[in-house]
Here is the input.
Amino acid sequence: MTNRSKTFLCALSISVMAVGVSSASQPCSAAKPSRTATTKQSDAVTTIPSEAATAKSSNSSAKATEKAAHGPSLVRWNDWSDDIFARAKKEGKLVLLDLEAVWCHWCHVMDEKTYADPSVAKLMDKNIIAVKVDQDSRPDLSNKYEKYGWPATIIFNSDGKELAKRSGYMDSDEFKKLVKQLAANPDKPEPEAIDAKVTYSSNNVLTAEQRKDLNFKHVDGYDGEFGGWGIGGHKFLDWNSVEYSLQLAKEGDKDALERVKKTLEAHHKLLDPVFGGVYQYSTNGDWDHPHFEKIMETQAECLRLYSVAGMVLKDQKYIDSAKAIDSYLKNFMTSPEGAFYTSQDADLKPGQHSAEYFALNDKERRAKGIPRIDKHVYARENGWAINAIAHLYMATGDSEYLKEAQKAAQWIIANRSIDGGGFRHDETDKGGPYLGDTLSMGRAFLSLYMATGDQQWLKRSSQAADFISQHFENKEAGGKLSAGFLTAEAKPNAIAAPEPLLEENQSICRFANLLSQYTGEAKYKAMSESAMRYLSTPEIVAKRRILVAGTLIADHEMAHSPAHITVVGKKSDPQAKELFLAAIGSPLIYRRIDWLDKSEGNLPNLDVEFPDLGKAAAFLCAGNRCSSPAYQPEDLVKLVDRVK
Here is the structure.
């Protein structure tokens, strides 16, 4: 995602037109601009020593988070739980939820300015039970309130009714005015705090009118001057917009190809030329004013997208960009056991802008220190990284990338698995299970299957999908199936009940649809159709004014079969392996790749009978036709190049 499209809004100002949020304050959102690119490598990336062991946590309690990131506080912070509302009712108080990101500059500022003001602390102590949550640790809350950016401030009455939602930094005066107003009227929510009822669509695809409207928004939202989607405000790489444009370019759309190239070239400016990795986004309507936090979803999705772009456009510079991001992950974001950490802070010192620091070379930076790395190891973030690195392996054929992805996958399987095929978020979870963890791991397993032909990964992907179906279906009262999937497992009478999330349902639609192609299982097709009913709901379609390509991709894939390459031959046969490497490195976006070794039995979905030719061969099926056998990698490449 997360995630996940969202907008990273950590800046002095926000362009409402560019990112589609209603506030003009200064949030740092883990929502999606994000999310590299090769600029000049003036200083070699050096490995920083890893700690002796992976950091352990149980969703990082509010007190631990506050102490680590901000030091002592005048506010008495609590952990989030529904029990907090019983206490609020007993004490006649409101409940304030402060959703922060440990990497977020404006979260640090609010802690060090607003919450450090004695008059604010006194007012809160009288009227508020205060809850602080690291949004990375609680995907249910993060996803529910993501459009408000970080910090997000949500105030409830003691019955759990939302009274007010605020986006970004508030100074002391603004904050005190809000608290006094709500304390005097605890049963009167602000209009924007009241959620409208949605009636879900019965359509499994977009209507022709919806498709036309979203395509117009996609093209109209492109910035022809600077590249990227959204004019003014923030600049970031919207992965879905670029991927959709790549698909259009593959089909012959020259304007879409120009949009892809200009955007990827411009986005190169957000690659840290010293440590590597991707800065979150740039302000001022151009690519020259980066904000420096490095979030795992940003690293992973940019790495994946540059790998895909390198394959589709057959351009090594994009592969090199993906390699630069992976180098950062290895050097800064990998635990001793091979799993991945969560994020790196934007600030060397919390609350202080660090542009001067990031202008230094490697030696000069290290003399001053390293921005804080959040060493939580979450299943969701690891799924993002594993999926991305599997794509880098497919783009390069370098087995070191495959080893890296598989090592992390095995660690998550051993340390984050839940019975039934699902995954915890952290070592222990106070909430959950969360959809994002199992979804990102299921998606990663399917990519590992595509990259290896090893059916253990396909089996694990299917188990993850089954867990999602059992735990996250969005059902109406009485158990009637509605549409889409909830961001967390629904609990009876829960405050801040989980809701479907646009990005997650786009991802489920694509994941379950492709899984149905690999397995032939109708239940996975039904999952994708349920997600599409959510995505095609008019109110959901209308949510976005620019970043609409995720729904367009899902709709396109639902309406078509993927290009299908099958390699037939023993996995011990070098010629079969060469054909398979050519298949996984092929310039196809929506694709299904199988390796049929008849000594292992048939494929789960053997929808074409392939002859035994006495030697390794590859077959390409696309557009209701299958090719003659290709015996050499270069012959397979020629076949693939004909596919639009």
Q: What stands out?
A: Residues 296-313 form the longest helix (18 residues). Confidence is low (pLDDT under 50) at residues 1-26, 29-71.
